[in-house]
Amino acid sequence: MRTGSIAAIFDLDGVLTSTSARHEQSWAEAAGRFGLPVSEMALKATRSVPRASSLAAILAHAGVAMDEGQRNALMAFKDRRYQELIAGLGPMDAFEGAREALETCRRLGLKTAVASASMNARLVLERLELISLVEFVADPRDATPKPSAEIYGRCCAALGVLARNSICIEDGAPMIANLRAAEMYTVGVGHEPLGADEQVVRIAEWDVVAALGRLRAR
Question: Is the pTM value of this prediction over 0.85?
Fold first, then answer.
């Protein structure tokens, strides 16, 4: 297997940086603006899922129904507020080791992509000054929402790499289970066991060369 035929596909939030607090703040403010009660449990349900699914979780927890126009208006408000909150992001907000992991992948000839549920992934990468190290940023509107593996498949197709030749770096157990079912090699990031092919607590601990060896050997 040639190294150049391998892709490293990264999740964004929880892997390269953390934007959860800003997402939750913008959802809380949007809910308040539209008169919705919002609980901590509801906000947790918005993590790493698409915007429409996040709003559905908030509405379900609140026991409130909204028509399409109201939902779209609330989501638009949330997105504007979130963009205001991430305007101050900078390179220092990338996790320790994030830039180094991407640089190592590129140095070894791996193709790189980001598969995030966030509509603002490219903007966040630009703020973190990591965008130049990423060849493709998937648009979550073009794939079935996570934890479906389809968004990772879109990255593989865009990079011209077979799914089984991809290394997917994720922090969600359901996502990892679906990636493994799609024959993708997985690297879990986090403290709790995620069921990945290999796992590190944080991206700074990931050994890219060792992962390549394991991918070739399986």
Answer: yes
